[in-house]
Amino acid sequence: DEKISQQIYHRLIKNADVVSYSADNLRYYITNITNRSDAIKLNNGVNMQDFIFDEGNFTEVPELQQIKAHGKKIIGYYGAIEEWFDVNAIKYLLEKTDYEIVLIGRTGIDLNSIACDRLHILGAVPYSQLKNNAHYFDVALIPFIVNKLTNSVSPVKFYEYAAQGIPVVSS
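Structure (tokenized):
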């Protein structure tokens, strides 16, 4: 129920000792709607040690080795694949390029409409294995539909990709 959710939200914000937000447009909701002018913007970040490539601790990923063996560049994404994921952007890449597209993560939407031999949906992997998987990416994606929800996020994956030195293309 939206009304009850708003009441709970306002009570939580009002009674919190410290309030923070991670995206600029969330400031409005914190300062104007709940009157918390003391809210602090905290940008997302990454623990660099979790993403620095260490050849001595590298675990090869057979599925990605096979894809890389095709000799084409890999455009990769890891994270949730839900309603905010821009399927049309992936479809466009598949139609206009010859790159291999790798999607890693839990899939909560139907991707059958873009299925092809260059689209590889690998499913979820443990956090500790993300850097081993992303090591195969030539370019990393954050293909989010631009809307009210996605304009209010600061994707941690951007910082993770950047910590690995992977070029990032984001909507």
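Helices lie at 2-15, 27-33, 62-68, 87-96, 130-134, 156-163. The mean pLDDT is 93.
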